[in-house]
Design goal:
Elements lengths: L1 H15 L7 H6 L43 E8 L3 H13 L4 E4 L8 H4 L20 H6 L9 H14 L6 E2 L4 E7 L4 E6 L4 E9 L21 E4 L14 E5 L3 H13 L2 E6 L6 E2 L7 H9 L1 H9 L19 H14 L15 H18 L3 H6 L14 E2 L2 H4 L5 E5 L5 E4 L3 E4 L2 E4 L2 E4 L8 H4 L3 E2 L6 H4 L18 E3 L12 H21 L4 E4 L1 H16 L30 H13 L5 E4 L1
Parallel strand pairs: 1-2, 1-6, 2-3, 4-17, 6-18, 7-16, 8-9, 8-16, 9-12, 10-11
Antiparallel strand pairs: 4-5, 5-6, 13-14, 14-15, 19-20
Helix pairs in contact: 3-16, 16-18
Bound molecules: 3-acetylpyridine adenine dinucleotide.
3-acetylpyridine adenine dinucleotide binds next to helix 7.
């Protein structure tokens, strides 16, 4: 009832306003530190060890001689990352299990992806009321979302509020980038080193690094010679960027480029969008969250959460039980029109087979192509914006506020870099095989080295010093997306092989954190010290991930980042588990209930 009621409210709103590898020692050698860093406020180090000093005694910090840090801080668990997942994992391990925990976070604040992605127009594609934590009823009731989709600053306020409310910040060390982590077999502990040369040791290492945090800046010759500013959307300057009076070039038309385009176009003298792959996009139909909607949500939160957890994608709505092919053309069009009016990612749920049957998918794809033709005045531009090489939602579908409309502006132009690839960047702009575009600024909305990038960047080494990068040469291999064979006591929240990016992230994150927390509780209760995925179990899981992907149309989009296709040289492997969150969570529960089947547990 709550959901139906909300759809009605959104529908009303939309109708009113159709708006738009170095080793740790190598690394430590470069560190400028002669004394152990002071304890940070609230720090709970359990033990200090003195490390051997390799440099001459009495060397001043600015006259560095090689030396290693002088102590290791020991914890039960180290969590890397203080976004949605790291914050909740800290709360769960520290406040439920009583473990000593340290979170190491590269940014200077909490927020993870939202800390870095401050580009113009950054807004969540999931609706605010369920893009949020469910673990605290009090938090649910006290927080007031202001819009249907939360903007980046509002999500940052929310996460900061959660971090303060649960006293999390005292156990987070900001400005700390992990550069190396190795499993010490004799001690049964992870040794973790940071960019600043600090060392940590912990029984459990939990990565909460997000799936989309390693930015993908294309290696275009000449970028260093560009006289203007350039920015990647995933590392946006905290002070903002002034587009006024500038000729801006934006490369990339994924969810980010599609959100940023209309906002940049409003301020820039001219915006040139460089498009390699045309994309489908559904209107977001954002709007203020009314007091009525807020009250309705709060009254029904338990049901909303249950629905999200029991769904395919972690969203609190049903996928239609009807086939797009069973409906007659008029009925189908009417249903698509209704879904278009409501807007957002749930358009995908209009029929049950949009992602499993090519002909069903084509009906949705063609409907959206028709909308692009309706909105964009210039037929040649409309055609260029029309996706023809993949079906709707086979890549992650963006949602937008006046994206296609923006191409009707006089100060916006579109360049086809599929037909005329980018060759080089010069002092004055960007050159394609067709000619030069003079620019004052370049914005790279070129995405991420998704899922594996942030994990591989940490130089993780398992048993026998084996590198994760080696283990994953042919693509990621995990058991349940939670563990990697050969890497005991390492847990990867929303790792490759889990539903993660195919879901509303907080729902997927909470399922993972709860499972990991229960697993560690089990180990403690049974006086066990180690857990490691069996290689055979991981092999079987990789096969299941593949099978689940191929039961859908998802692998058919050749340019999808789900397949690693956006990063040159990355293995083409479908990374997330496409079998659905509810099914996946059931498998995880069963594995645990069967004594952690597929894992080796030891003392
Ligand atoms: O990145 P993308 P994104 N030359 O990889 C193009 C989440 N997200 O940051 O498709 C020219 O989707 C590339 O072209 P192609 C969401 O899960 C969430 O937009 O590879 N172009 C593509 O057009 C999303 O899916 C939200 O041919 C190049 C674009 O750059 C994910 O993040 C908001 C190029 C990259 O698109 C990633 O989205 C935003 C090159 N060398 C994002 N290299 C919210 O929920 C790449 N491209 C708020």
């Amino acid at each position: 009832m709550a959901i139906t009621e909300l759809m009605r409210l959104w529908g009303q709103h939309a109708a009113k306003k159709a708006q738009p590898a170095r080793t740790a020692l190598d690394h430590a050698d470069a560190i400028d530190s002669t004394s152990p860093p002071a304890n940070r406020p609230g720090e709970t180090r359990r033990k200090r060890l003195t490390w051997r000093q390799r440099g001459p005694e009495g060397t001043m910090p600015d006259m560095q001689a090689p030396k290693t840090p002088e102590y290791t801080a020991e914890y039960d668990a180290i969590i890397v990352g203080a976004g949605f997942s790291g914050l909740y994992q800290l709360h769960a391990l520290r406040d439920r299990l009583g473990l000593s925990v340290r979170v190491l976070e590269a940014g200077d604040g909490v927020g993870g992806t939202w800390y870095w992605n401050r580009y113009p127009g950054a807004r969540c594609d999931s609706e605010s009321y369920y893009y949020s934590y469910s673990f605290s009823k009090e938090l649910e009731q006290e927080w007031e979302w202001s819009e249907r989709y939360p903007e980046q600053p509002e999500i940052m306020r929310y996460l900061n509020h959660a971090a303060e409310r649960f006293g999390l910040k005292r156990d987070i060390q900001f400005g700390t980038r992990v550069t190396h982590a190795a499993f010490d077999e004799a001690a049964g502990r992870w040794q973790v080193a940071t960019e600043a040369g600090e060392r940590f040791s912990a029984q459990f290492l939990i990565t909460a690094v997000g799936c989309l945090s390693s930015t993908n800046v294309p290696k275009i010759p000449g970028l260093e010679s560009f006289a203007g500013e350039w920015h990647h959307t995933g590392r946006w300057p905290h002070g903002g960027v002034d587009f006024r009076g500038k000729r801006v070039g934006l490369v990339g038309t994924g969810s980010t480029g599609i959100q940023a385009t209309p906002v940049i176009a409003r301020d820039a003298r001219h915006l040139t969008v460089f498009q390699r792959t045309a994309n489908y996009s559904i209107p977001a139909r954002n709007g203020p969250m009314s007091a009525e909607a807020r009250a309705e949500i709060k009254r029904n939160y338990a049901a909303i959460r249950e629905k999200s957890r029991g769904s395919t994608n972690g969203h609190p709505w049903d996928i239609s039980a009807a086939s797009a092919l069973d409906a007659g053309p008029e009925e189908r069009m009417a249903l698509y029109e209704d879904a278009w009016k409501v807007g957002g990612l749930r358009f995908r749920a209009a029929f049950k087979d949009l992602l499993s049957h090519p002909e069903a998918n084509e009906t949705a794809s063609e409907f959206i192509r028709g909308k692009i033709r309706e909105v964009v005045h210039d037929p040649a531009t409309a055609e260029l914006l029309t996706p023809r090489d993949h079906g709707f939602a086979t890549k992650r579908p963006p949602i937008d506020t006046e994206y296609f409309e923006t191409f009707n502006r006089d100060n916006v132009s579109l360049v086809d870099v599929r037909a005329h690839p980018i060759e080089a960047i010069s002092r004055d702009g960007l050159r394609t095989t067709e000619g030069e575009h003079k620019l004052d600024m370049i914005v790279f909305a070129t995405g991420f080295d998704a899922m594996t990038g942030p994990l591989l960047a940490m130089d993780i080494r398992g048993r026998g010093g084996a590198a994760l990068a080696e283990a994953w040469t042919a693509g990621p291999r995990t058991y349940l997306g939670l563990q990697v064979a050969g890497f005991p006591n390492l847990f990867t929240i929303t790792g490759p092989g889990s539903p993660s990016v195919l879901c509303n992230m907080p729902t997927a994150i909470e399922q993972h954190v709860d499972w990991i927390t229960d697993c560690i509780r089990h180990l403690r209760d049974h006086r066990l010290a180690r857990i490691e995925a069996r290689a055979e179990a991981a092999e079987r899981w990789v096969a299941q991930v593949n099978e689940a992907a191929h039961a859908t149309l998802l692998p058919t989009a050749a340019s999808s980042w789900y397949l690693g296709a956006n990063v040159p040289g990355k293995p083409r492997v479908f990374m997330p588990y496409a079998g659905g969150l509810a099914r996946y969570a059931g498998i995880c529960r069963e594995v645990a209930a069967n004594g952690y089947e597929g894992f080796v547990l030891g003392r």
